[in-house]
Amino acid sequence: MRRHLYSAVILAAAALAAAPALAQRGAMTVPRNLEQMVAGASDIVRGSVVSARVEKHPELQNLDTLVVTLRLSDAIKGGARGTYTFRQYVWDLRDERDAAGYYKGQEYLLLMNAPSRYGLTSPVGMEQGRFRIVRDGAGRQLAVNGRGNALLMQGVPTTHTRAGVALSRDSADVVIKHQQGPIAVDDLVRLVRELSQGSS
Predict the structure, then answer these.
(1) Which residues are CB-contacts of 125 (< 8 A; sequence separation ≥ 6)?
(2) Is the per-residue pLDDT at 111 higher than 50?
(3) 55-73 pLDDT per residue, tens
(4) Residue 1: is its pLDDT beyond 60?
């Protein structure tokens, strides 16, 4: 009897411990601030989703991948022009049903890792490096990542970047004042552009 009770307690504890992991969509990632993500990005692009489809990897046939193409309005870092296509591993079965939220016409600012030898990539810090661009009730464009921009500015310098490039006063104000939640797209793009100087 005691043995069965012990087994039941162990199973219950394991189930409770696993619950957050099962509820977590995508991969578990270490928190990164904006400067770290900009420095780690191979490409930083802004654009609207043209297509997003789930398909098998051309070489690794057991691997489900998501292929996303954006029509670019801006390329802040990297050599992308016109359109930008990337292939990402499907981390979660729900991503197969909704293309990981890459809906046609939706605009994003993406900070992308360099592709692996198999052509796979993802936003830096996964949901942290993917900023969905939306409009508020007043028509202002705002950007928010998968973590609600929490900790985005923590540790970001307010004077000079790692490469010694001086930040503008407007960008320094954004770093100081922004805690979490949506951020004005113009402020985010300006800051990303300044942080990317010297990190190419």
Answers:
(1) 29, 30, 31, 32, 37
(2) yes
(3) 999 999 899 999 999 999 9
(4) no
Residue 137's Cα: distance from chain center in Å? 25
Half-sphere exposure of 18 (CA within 13 A, CB side): 7
Specify the higher pLDDT residue, 141 or 164: 141
Distance between CA atoms of residues 137 and 70, nearest Å = 26
Amino acid at 49: V
Q: What is the DSSP letter of 114?
A: P
**How do 64-77 and 83-89 pair as beta strands?**
antiparallel
pTM: 0.83
Q: What does the domain layout of the chain look like in residue ranges? A: 34-196
Phi and psi for 68 in degrees, rounded to 5? -120, 135
Q: In the sheet where 141-144 sits, what is the strand order?
A: 83-89, 64-77, 43-56, 107-112, 130-135, 141-144, 183-184
